[in-house]
Amino acid sequence: MIKIKFLTILIVLLFTFNSNAAFDVKARTAILQDYYSGEILFEKEPNKSIYPASMTKIMTAIIAFNLIKDGDLSLDEKFIISENAWRLSSAGYSSMFIMVGDEVTVENLLKGIIVASGNDACIALAEGIAGTEEEFAIMMTAKAKEIGMENTNFANSSGINNTQNISTVRDILIMSNYLIKNFPEEYKYFSEKEFTWDRTGGDPITQGNRNPLLYKSLGVDGIKTGYLAVEKYSLASSLYKNGRRLIAVGSGFNTKNDRSRESSKLLTWGLTNFDLVEVAKANTPIEDIEVWLGKKDKVKTYVNKDIYKTIKKGRKNLLKVTLNYKGPIQAPIKKNDILGKLNLSYDGELVAEYDLLAYEDVRRLNAFSRLMRSINFLIWGDV
């Protein structure tokens, strides 16, 4: 027979906050995501083409992090600085202030890129990895396509003026999400508020992180600012607070103050208007369900991915989780067998379903035991 079990989600009714349908931010294009559920909470022309400016440097770092993860690059490896890279150490560019012939570690170049937003450091890293910046940009675009950035083309490693260096805030969000998920330790570089470069032939230079939200008490721990005269100001930002992570990307802010204020407003709006509910953790037993003719009477079940749902404030009671399966489940059962579905509904509407898997093996009873169990069932109706 079909069995449906209702799982209880701890409901804490809070004061009701009505999300403002007219909410907006002063940017040409913007997007906000609840990281753990993956749900988009706000978007404003998210597929509009933009020049990503220094947000490009997120991908520059990702390429290096991937190589380090694969063992093809190390943080203490040194690259020799070319004249091509040094030329961007001049006035008018964000720079790490490296010199021709310097031998600089990959770690220092990464900090120069992430914290000081050094265009010179980008070229030095790109040339050290790929030989030329052009070849490195090909690697960047290939990686972008691989992770689902469908509307992005990278023409250089820094994001400085190039009409072929294009993206969207949705794609920058995908890239930021990929960075945080795949490189949690390396991502900590993006929260560093200053970087000191002990440069050749001069006193050390200390530069602060250009992300204005790092200096506010919001819980922001990244990611990257951008500016081009044609695009104005942009910012990819991420906040972690009370077990929640939000990622926001905006471009086309008119001023630095607008960028800081409107990005803060967007992140705060996401925190105050929505709750995050943890439905299930990956590879963790959820519920025992009955077994027929098995050496165990019950089998543990689980799902193979974290399940979260973002709910408007004060509406958690509209969320229901059910286990839907034909039971009892007949033995033998092998670990990871699909036993049914975990269904997630909101306000009476099914919004998602996930495979409900066996957490363990359950062997079948021997022939005599199966016979006795069947007789018992016929007499008493007891499994």
In brief, what are we looking at here?
The protein is α+β, with helices and mostly antiparallel strands and 383 residues long. It has helices at 57-69, 83-86, 106-114, 119-130, 133-146, 169-182, 256-273, 367-380, and strands at residues 2-7, 29-34, 40-44, 78-80, 103-105, 194-197, 205-208, 220-228, 232-241, 244-253, 274-280, 288-292, 298-302, 307-312, 319-326, 329-330, 338-346, 349-358.
Q: What does this protein structure show overall?
A:
The protein is α+β, with helices and mostly antiparallel strands. It has two domains: 2-12 and 280-380, Peptidoglycan synthesis regulatory factor (PBP3), Domain 2; 29-253, Beta-lactamase (3-Layer(aba) Sandwich). The chain contains eight helices and 18 strands. Helix 4 (119-130) packs across helix 5.
List the helices and strands and how they pair.
Blueprint: E1 2-7, E2 29-34, E3 40-44, H1 57-69, E4 78-80, H2 83-86, E5 103-105, H3 106-114, H4 119-130, H5 133-146, H6 169-182, E6 194-197, E7 205-208, E8 220-228, E9 232-241, E10 244-253, H7 256-273, E11 274-280, E12 288-292, E13 298-302, E14 307-312, E15 319-326, E16 329-330, E17 338-346, E18 349-358, H8 367-380
Parallel strand pairs: 12-16
Antiparallel strand pairs: 1-15, 2-3, 2-10, 4-5, 6-7, 8-9, 9-10, 11-14, 12-13, 13-18, 15-17, 17-18
Helix pairs in contact: 1-3, 3-4, 4-5
